[in-house]
Design goal:
The complex is a heterodimer of chains A (305) and B (243). By secondary structure, chain A is of the alpha/beta class. Chain A has nine helices and 15 strands. In chain A, the strands form four sheets. Chain A has a seven-stranded parallel beta sheet. A four-stranded antiparallel beta sheet of chain A has the order 4-5-13-10, with no helix packed on it. In chain A, strands 1-2 form a two-stranded antiparallel ribbon. Chain A is globular. The radius of gyration of chain B is 17 Å and the shape is globular. In chain B, strands 4-3-7-1-2-6-5 form a seven-stranded antiparallel beta sheet. A seven-stranded mixed beta sheet of chain B has the order 11-10-9-8-12-13-16, sandwiched between helices. Chain B is of the alpha/beta class and 243 residues long. Chain B contains five helices and 16 strands. Chain B has two domains: 88 residues, Elongation Factor Tu (Ef-tu), domain 3 (Beta Barrel); 109 residues, 3-Layer(aba) Sandwich (Rossmann fold). Classes of the chains: A alpha/beta (305), B alpha/beta (243). Chains A and B meet through β4, β5 and α8 of A and β14 of B.
Chain lengths: 305, 243
Amino acid sequence: MVNTKLSLCGIALDNPVIPASGTFGYGHEFAEYYDINILGSLSTKGATREARFGNPTPRIAECAAGMLNSVGLQNPGVDAVIAEELPRLARVFHKPVLANVCGFSVEEYAENAAKLDKQPQVGWLEINISCPNVHCGGMSFGTDPRLAAEVTRAVKVVTTKPVMMKLTPNVTDIVSVARACEDAGADGVALINTLMGMSIDLRSKRPVLANVTGGVSGPAVKPVALRMVYQVYEAVSIPILGMGGVQSAEDVLEFLLSGATAVEVGAANVADPFACKNIIETLPAAMARYGITDLKDIIGGAHHG
Amino acid sequence: MKKTTLMIYKNNPIIGGVYKLYLTGDVSAIHCPGQFVELSVPGQFLRRPFSVCDWDRDGVTVVYRTVGQGTRRLAAMMPGEGIDALVGLGNGFDTSLSGEKPLLIAGGSGVPMMLCLAKQLLAEGKTVTAVLGYRTASDIFLADDIRYLGVDVHLTTEDGSAGVRGTVTDAMEDLDYTYFYTCGPEAMFRAVNGVANTSGQFSLEARMGCGYGACMGCTIETVKGPKRVCKDGPVFTREELLW
């Protein structure tokens, strides 16, 4: 028997597999296909103060071993998320969720976080300071350690729930941003959001994405993500939620060994609605294959010896 | 929707750059014309969405044009190979609204789905007319297949090499119909919307991420707010769309 149970900031997880924000809607689409209560948790689609359509289409493109998206935080607004989406989600998912919070100002982050904090099904707040697809917000807070710290402090004031700061890889030194979040009181860091990229359509000779640039995700970014998790683990003592190209149980083990306490699965959900289910079902066998009996024991294991 | 492995039975070119693919396996999740399947082509990260041209108890027919790496790789696949597929996606056409004399209007890659739609409408006892638009005579495909079902087919070509010279709307003027169903490029939709004198349904094309409503990649604005082409569509009524 192997043990897949873990604790993320004091909240128990049956397993470390969590669908990433923006790739799982609010869970209903997947609940039509399987019982999503097998998941460790799930991260909801990011909520902003106002409803957003997002960027013009096309806003999805393929690239080698992955994809680009420039969706741009389409969501019905935090009040509608609370009034409609979370209650619908509660009918099909009975575990604490990560509420993904977005904003265009420090005040907006705090305001949205305060509203989501009051929802009983919200276990953690995941603060997205790393969306590469919006202007005047999103990633601009995650590329400057001082601003990242400012958002962290503003959110911490309005919640008693664990605050996970979601970081961007589009920086020279992600470690300094992670440290700044920890020093400002963050309970954990989540990394990585997508890497900024683009794609050209040879027929039109123009960028494929109407937004020109988008975020790269999928297996193509996994080595970058693993490296960043490894570096951040050396520098902070708060838990890390690792993500970037996870599509198998083996990938989960690699992220835990690099220093993640749990992992998020993003692009894999877009290619296969059963991606998380398959990872969870194959995790015990993968653990046994590599002589792992308890996931807790391998967190950060790659740093020892 | 059902995830399953389908087997390639036939994958042959029918005209230059257009292939007819017949896949066998469990296609029980397809329940009406206008739905689509998503095929996982080896070497591609995202699945490719294809409208259902026809289906039966044993399998599904897809007619596709090779336009990029994904469809070129699909065209190179051989009978006997398996394809990981999501079957029975999207809402499809509502034939209950058609009246007695529905008109099918399609251009290019919009033509294939009209085959199973025509079959369904004919089975319901309707009198079906179709206007199919192509660039030139050598681009024409599936028109005879649809005609042989018992559909009154009118052709248009941009260069006049077959049928009426011009676009689909040039052939619509004298036709008498109770409702319409259409699929094709956006410019054609706008033209159809400009001349049609009944209500109707539009099957939209989109660059999709997931195909099942999760990623919000293919969203459009409608009179009822943002809608996902893959999950809330791909078929929308004339009244739902913003013009």
